[in-house]
Specification:
The two termini are 21 Å apart. Helix 2 packs across helix 3 (24-34). A hairpin with a 5-residue loop joins strand 2 and strand 3 (49-52). The protein has helices at 2-8, 13-20, 24-34, 66-81, 85-98, and strands at 10-11, 40-43, 49-52. By secondary structure, the chain is mainly alpha-helical.
Length: 104
Amino acid sequence: MIEYLSDHRRASYGTFMDMFGVSQSTVYRDVIALSIMYPIDCKQGNGGGIYVTEESWHYGIRHLNKRHSVAISKALDYARQIGDTEQASALEEILKIYSWRTIQ
């Protein structure tokens, strides 16, 4: 649930009901319990659902935002220009691991 919300930022109760084969009340109780540890909340009714309350929060360090991805790419270009192969290699590894998960 937390990883899904980290990636998608918002979900309907139905999403988790289908995903886990549980009732809406079970999803609601789980969200209440998880909201003690994570910045998530829920809202009933039209336009409701389960959502992340802090825009910059992501689960773990699995994501780069656009600004970070651009900064790493620029550092990689510079490392290549000056011939710092060790630095370039490290930056390439970072981009391989995280850039496919870049968020806007």
